[in-house]
Amino acid sequence: MKTSTITLFTLFFIGILAIGQSQEPKRWSVEKANEWYDNHTWLNGADFVPSTAINQLEMWQEDTFDPKTIDRELGFAEGIGMNVMRVYLHSLAYKQDPDGFKKRMDTYLEISKNHKIKTMFVFFDDVWSKTPKIGKQPNPKPGTHNSGWIQDPGDPASYEASNFPELEAYVKDVMKTFAKDDRILLWDLYNEPGNEGKGNKTLPLLKKVFGWAREINPSQPISAGLWKWDLTELNAFQALNSDIITYHDYEGPEHHKHIINLLKSHGRPLICTEYMARTRNSRFSNIMPILKEENIGAINWGLVKGKSNTIYQWNTPIPNGEEPIEWFHDVFRQDGTPYRQDEVDLIKKLNGKQ
């Protein structure tokens, strides 16, 4: 969700280290990871939250779960050939109603399957508001990017070991329920660990969630995306324990190509799980063709303009709520009209839809 200065030497070192060291026994082999990836058509899609939800809790709580909007908006994605969505869960929605939460996950997955779209679920997240709360979620702040997005489990909750047993029960129950579900592409265990100044405080929970996932041993691969290269210990752990290498990059094409070339040192399939920030020169026009040519999964931030306000730049609010001259993220308006017709034409072309 947020970007940072990249230390390319650190990234290169991690790649070399990954080749040279033996891994936890249950980690997928390079051969298995590549065989899995080769069995899929080129993966592309978006980080998805329905336009009627300001955050993960509003998406998943019973009172505000909105299958009609989900169905309509995934239809927009299907229409341009997208075949995967990255979707954030939230432990508090599970805590509030475990069985109902899993039933809503199943409903989402069935809607997604009907649109020929696989799902990449995200468990934990270190980005934005530190204090998630069950119940009615706040209204968006006009013109403010992700004004209501919430961390999971929060700060200091994410590094308080007393919370770990409850989080373990959540992760294992959800993953065991869907461990052989072919509607799920991949489990993304932790979004941007160490963000919001947490740094290595996140490392204990990151290690735990990988351990919990390995105990369940799902049929789907597991990963946690690389995103900030001066978090050396976190990066090394993520790189050395992910079955598929996932990463974020919101920079222009020259920088993105450097990242790709260095990540190739792992010898594993690559999926970019966040990119496309127009005002930073990360665009569909200059990044997506590179990812297609390199056979790297391409998941951009945002599908439909909505309550998350991700058409606005990070930390650059427009207090009167006017639409920015150039959208930061997102592809469609709520009625399905593309923000830019040339962009959806390109996506369709890369997907063989025209």
TrEMBL record:
GO terms for molecular function: hydrolase activity, hydrolyzing O-glycosyl compounds. InterPro entries: GH, Glyco_hydro_5. It holds the Pfam family Cellulase. GO terms for biological process: polysaccharide catabolic process. The keyword Calcium does not apply. Keywords: Glycosidase, Hydrolase. Residues 77-302 form the Glycoside hydrolase family domain. It comes from the Bacteria. Residues 134-155 are annotated as: Disordered. SUPFAM superfamilies: (Trans)glycosidases. Belongs to the glycosyl hydrolase 5 (cellulase A) family. This is Glycoside hydrolase family 5 domain-containing protein. It comes from Saonia flava.
